[in-house]
Write a structure and sequence with these properties.
The structure is a single chain. 19% of the residues lie in helices and 30% in strands. It has helices spanning 31-34, 37-43, 145-152, 175-184, 220-228, 252-264; strands at 48-53, 56-61, 67-70, 77-78, 89-94, 97-102, 109-111, 114-116, 118-120, 126-129, 132-139, 165-169, 189-194, 200-206, 209-215, 218-219, 234-238. The strands form 3 sheets. Strands 2-1-11-10-7-8 form a 6-stranded antiparallel beta sheet, with no helix packed on it. The chain has a 6-stranded antiparallel beta sheet with strand order 12-17-13-14-15-16.
Amino acid sequence: MRCPTCGNTSDVQAATSCRVCGSTMPAAKARNRATDSTHYKKLSGQKRHLLVRVGAPPVELKADVEVRIGRSRECDLVVQSPRVSRVHALIFWVTGAPSVRDLVSQNGVWINGAQVREARLVDGDELTIGPFACTYRRLDAINSLNELNELLDSQADTQEVEATAMSGRLAEVSFFEVLETLALHARTGTVEVYGPWGDEGRIGVRDGSPVWAQLADLEGRAAIEALLDWTEGHFRFSSVSEERAPNVTSTLQEILDEVRRRSEHGLDARDYQG
């Protein structure tokens, strides 16, 4: 069965959600409407270009419409990260196919792990710009009625979706990058952080924004700021949400900007009294 949004193929016929982009798989009851000849003819002429992100809706690219990517609010695709230049990259079109160009950014544009100045995007390419990581998918026209049937086939309307998790070492990826990535992909769940000395911190996020935080006797913003100073330990994010009373009123961007400013002046969480 293939996801109609990103094109990912699943061997689980009863799946109701795509594991790549999170989109809802079409139910079996949609088969009759979808296989109607008029509707089929309409679908058979479609071509779609998507930037598919794990745990977030895909970004659809419109043919012949340029997309500027960067930190500036004036960009078409805004990526709020210090690793992204104000106007970092450009997606442009040549004979109906998208290409990406590095606009002399500081940290570069990467495709399939290799840095590029300019390259044409091919279906399946992994594009990375700072914390923004995605897969380019080119969905061609539906070529047969059998393929359309396979696309829309679903044997169940309900199936529990397994919680997805990511984890890593803070020595390899900073906690700044962890929170920026969760914000960029608008994730909902719980972040657990374990220090080598036995301390444990937890942050609840909803749609990428912190809702509550706890680290020993610190709560809310103070707990997040202290965790951002950690350079050792492990982190783990799970999409399983832990319901607690909200205690974070600042936006993530406000918190990150303040900790960055503090770091530039050589201060740490213990020196901060604001």
